């Protein structure tokens, strides 16, 4: 079972994402900000990281940059959650090493479809 | 909306309201001029979360509105827009508006569209610096126009850059996705592949030539490559039309377009008839009563939960200890030696139970800051509106009280603070003339005292004018013309129904909710309110409330074979009756003279129709109680223990009974009714009225 690290400071978004992905059979771990996520990522390896951009403590861009710097996460897909207005954020995420992005708002089916594409 | 989504809505609302509170507090900080980047960031993040969540959960209107707010904040954040008082005020109004919109969505009501549009325009105007062409809220731009005459397929050149893998992308995934769009032929171009020895396994060397046949649109293909656009050389060309039928392909393609048209956003404004924009602004948002009234969720600190788990653990230990005692008794062991263990176990059980009770009660306790937090904003707005300068001082905001009490005390407090600013604090010039600082002070203080929480609202305004109050009372016929009262009693007049001292009804205070309602609300919570005032110095209101509504310190009293519970807070004193002090008026009504005050006597056995020990006044006891601001003497046979009782609702378990506020179960398993003083007063009055007095 593929493992996913879902990072978002908003509890409702996180619950939605986690519920959806668990429903689709993924093993999901949640984190409320970049710092927490980074620590979790160091403690075990995830097959995919799904992160929000705007978060307190450490934002999604910085998290991506730090993860890519870890040998274990060199090729792991990292997907950012961004809003349609933030085109520059998509690019900033890419520049930091993100694999791609999912545009908010998305519904559970879109989310699962995207994740499936990336890690099957 | 998906059912799956709706289950997260409640969390979303809760979190969004918290976010709005955060925004409000931070905006007020900005207002006072100490705008640091972190504060703006905090506001931005809160707005951003609300926007993202509302779009995801199908609240398009909220999301669009928040988008405007967020844009403005973003500009403040990157320094391209100064933080002006005007902008902050507009943002504060937007916070209110969002709160209303979210409330409306949650309760199925209608938000005030005119206000939303108006604010939307103002936000636009502020952002663009011009008239903003009157557009309310912008719609997202339409989807890209239909692709150019593509017919039956595409030829795609895909040459990833060497670093493609470093972003976690995989060309195989992309090819797989393309294959889903139609019939695909792929040729790998390995010409760039170096010798094995020179090959870097982390780099990408392959390229692909892809021929895709099918009705796929350019956007669909573009979407598949969107993540890697900058990490590859990509060429997408339509295949030259072959023998295939272009008509059918066109139709098909439309179908595809429709399918991918915008997702979750479903703006209510779109579906409204055009006329709805003219709904009168004054019409308040209609709200469906939330199921279960105030029985919403509660956030509990993890430490409180841990405490309880810990205590339950101890309870289990105690239980097993007592269980062992039982087992050994059964095995016929000497009872004497076990007795000690049994008592020890029971003592431990008692301690566990008490601690568990306290811990569980603590769950319902929240710091009063939940109520206090709304005041800085209110005072800010109100003093601006009235042209007064007011400093608000909050203290004791960590004081905890029961959530239910808190929910019910909020509105009365708002009213009292409003009153203090509207009627208490003078205009700056007037204050200076009186030799006071032009800035008035309003203080809110909360603390625990005994089993009560005390909330004080004081101001350093002009105080109450006893003369004016009396004149008003005469005018309204509340007091016989010319009769005077000591000052403290005169101040109490403001709690009288239909009494308002504002010379003109302002839109601040005169909302039809008077001080009488405030006092009634406080009384209904089992609390009391007192007023002190000094002319020229200010006014202080002291509210006393029980910490919780579910446990009551009670005095058990006996009438015949029945036991009743009196709230301890209502009892003033108990005494043996001296017949000489009893005066009977108009036959039925008896008064007891206590230190120059005549107190009506209620014979409980009569009222409830039960058989007492005796009917002679001087053989019973008189319990003097206070309710609704008046004193009452209750005749009982005996006073029994004082104890804490758990209140069980009569309405829920049986039905509402006048004169009783609830019931409880005593240690021996019998049910005792809890007396409601104001209810008793009503009952006694009704009784007196229905029984024509006989001459004594």
Summarize the structure.
The complex is a heterodimer of chains A (120) and B (696). With 120 residues, chain A is an alpha/beta fold. Chain A contains five helices and five strands.
3D structure, described in words:
- The complex is a heterodimer of chains A (120) and B (696).
- By secondary structure, chain A is α/β, with parallel strands linked by helices.
- Chain A has a five-stranded parallel β-sheet, with helices on both faces.
- The mean pLDDT of chain A is 86.
- Chain A is built from five helices and five strands.
- Chain A has a single domain, classed as Rossmann fold.
- By secondary structure, chain B is of the alpha+beta class.
- Among the domains of chain B are: 2-138, HPT domain (Four Helix Bundle (Hemerythrin (Met), subunit A), Up-down Bundle), CATH 1.20.120; 153-238, ACT domain (Alpha-Beta Plaits); 551-690, Beta Barrel (OB fold (Dihydrolipoamide Acetyltransferase, E2P)), CATH 2.40.50.
- In chain B, strands 14-18-19-17-16-15 form a six-stranded mixed β-sheet. Chain B has a five-stranded mixed β-sheet with strand order 6-8-9-11-10. In chain B, strands 20-12-13-22-21 form a five-stranded mixed β-sheet.
- In chain B, helix 2 (37-56) runs antiparallel to helix 3 (60-77) and helix 4 runs antiparallel to helix 5.
- Chain B is extended.
- The model of chain B is unreliable at 130-150, 242-295 and 502-512 (pLDDT under 50).
- Classes of the chains: A alpha/beta (120), B alpha+beta (696).
- At the A-B interface, helix 1, strand 4, strand 5 and helix 5 of A face helix 1, helix 2, helix 3 and helix 6 of B.
């Amino acid at each position: 079972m593929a493992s996913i690290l879902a990072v978002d400071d908003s509890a409702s978004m996180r619950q939605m994402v986690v519920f959806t992905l668990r429903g689709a059979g993924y093993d999901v771990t949640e984190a409320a900000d970049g710092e927490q996520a980074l620590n979790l990522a160091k403690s075990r390896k995830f097959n995919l990281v799904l992160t929000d951009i705007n978060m307190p403590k450490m934002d999604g861009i910085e998290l991506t940059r730090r993860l890519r710097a870890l040998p274990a996460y060199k090729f792991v897909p990292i997907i950012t959650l961004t809003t349609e207005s933030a085109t520059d954020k998509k690019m900033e995420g890419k520049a930091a090493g993100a694999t791609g992005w999912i545009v908010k708002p998305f519904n559970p089916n879109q989310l699962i479809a995207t994740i499936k594409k990336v890690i099957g | 909306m998906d059912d799956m989504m709706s289950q997260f809505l409640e969390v979303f609302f809760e979190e969004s309201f918290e976010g709005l509170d955060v925004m409000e507090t931070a905006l007020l900080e900005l207002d006072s001029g100490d705008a640091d980047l972190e504060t703006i960031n905090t506001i931005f993040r809160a707005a951003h979360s609300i926007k993202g969540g509302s779009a995801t959960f199908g609240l398009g209107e909220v999301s669009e509105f928040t988008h405007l707010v967020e844009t403005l904040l973003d500009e403040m954040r990157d320094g391209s827009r100064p933080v002006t008082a005007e902008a902050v005020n507009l943002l504060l109004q937007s916070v209110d508006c969002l709160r209303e919109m979210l409330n409306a969505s949650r309760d199925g009501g209608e938000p005030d569209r005119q206000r939303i549009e108006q604010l939307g325009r103002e936000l636009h105007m502020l952002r663009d610096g011009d008239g903003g062409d009157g557009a309310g809220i912008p719609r997202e731009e339409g989807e890209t126009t239909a692709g150019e005459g593509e017919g039956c397929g595409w030829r795609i050149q895909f040459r990833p850059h060497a670093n493609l893998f470093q972003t976690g992308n995989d060309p195989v995934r992309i090819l797989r996705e393309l294959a889903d769009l139609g019939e695909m032929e792929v040729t790998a171009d390995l010409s760039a592949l170096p010798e094995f020895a020179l090959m870097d396994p982390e780099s990408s060397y392959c390229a692909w030539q892809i021929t895709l046949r099918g009705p796929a649109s350019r956007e669909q293909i573009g979407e598949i490559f969107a993540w890697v656009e900058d990490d590859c050389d990509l060429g997408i060309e339509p295949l030259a039309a072959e023998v295939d039928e272009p008509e059918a392909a066109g139709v098909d393609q439309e179908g595809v377009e429709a399918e991918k048209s915008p997702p979750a956003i479903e703006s209510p404004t779109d579906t409204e008839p055009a006329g709805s924009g003219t709904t009168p602004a004054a019409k308040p948002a209609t709200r469906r009563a939330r199921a279960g009234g105030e029985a919403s969720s509660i956030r509990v600190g993890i430490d409180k939960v841990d405490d309880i788990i810990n205590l339950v653990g101890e309870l289990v230990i105690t239980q097993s200890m007592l269980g062992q005692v039982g087992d050994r008794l059964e095995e016929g062991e000497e009872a004497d030696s076990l007795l000690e263990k049994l008592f020890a176990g029971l003592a431990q059980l008692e301690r566990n139970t008490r601690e568990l009770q306290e811990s569980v009660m603590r769950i319902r306790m929240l710091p009063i800051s939940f109520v206090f937090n709304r005041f800085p904003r209110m005072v800010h707005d109100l003093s601006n509106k009235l042209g007064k300068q007011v400093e608000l001082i909050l203290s004791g905001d960590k004081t905890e009280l029961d959530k239910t009490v808190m929910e019910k005390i909020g509105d009365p407090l708002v009213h009292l603070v409003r009153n203090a600013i509207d009627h208490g604090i003078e205009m700056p010039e007037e204050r200076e003339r009186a030799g006071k600082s032009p800035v008035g002070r309003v203080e809110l203080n909360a603390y625990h005292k005994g089993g009560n929480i005390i909330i004080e609202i004081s101001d350093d305004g002009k105080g109450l004018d006893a003369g004016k109050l009396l004149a008003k009372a005469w005018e309204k016929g509340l007091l016989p013309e010319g009769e005077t009262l000591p000052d403290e009693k005169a101040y109490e007049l403001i709690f009288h129904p239909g009494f308002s001292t504002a010379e003109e009804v302002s839109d601040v205070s005169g909302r039809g909710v008077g001080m009488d309602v405030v006092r009634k609300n406080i009384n209904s919570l089992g609390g009391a309110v007192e007023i002190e005032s000094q002319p020229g110095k200010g006014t202080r209101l002291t509210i006393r409330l029980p910490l919780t509504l579910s446990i009551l310190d009670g005095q058990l009293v006996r009438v015949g074979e029945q036991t009743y519970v009196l709230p301890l807070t209502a009892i003033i004193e108990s005494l043996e009756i001296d017949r000489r002090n009893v005066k009977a008026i108009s036959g039925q009504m008896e008064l007891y003279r206590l230190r120059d005050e005549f107190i009506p006597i209620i014979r409980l056995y009569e009222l409830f129709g039960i058989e007492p020990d005796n009917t002679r006044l001087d053989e019973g006891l008189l319990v003097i109680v206070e309710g609704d601001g008046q004193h009452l003497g209750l005749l009982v046979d005996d006073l029994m223990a004082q104890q804490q009782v758990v209140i069980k609702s009569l309405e829920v378990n049986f039905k509402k009974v006048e004169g009783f506020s609830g019931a409880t179960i005593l240690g021996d398993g019998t049910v005792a009714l809890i007396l409601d003083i104001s209810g008793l007063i009503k009952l006694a009055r009704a009784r007196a009225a229905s029984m024509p007095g006989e001459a004594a």
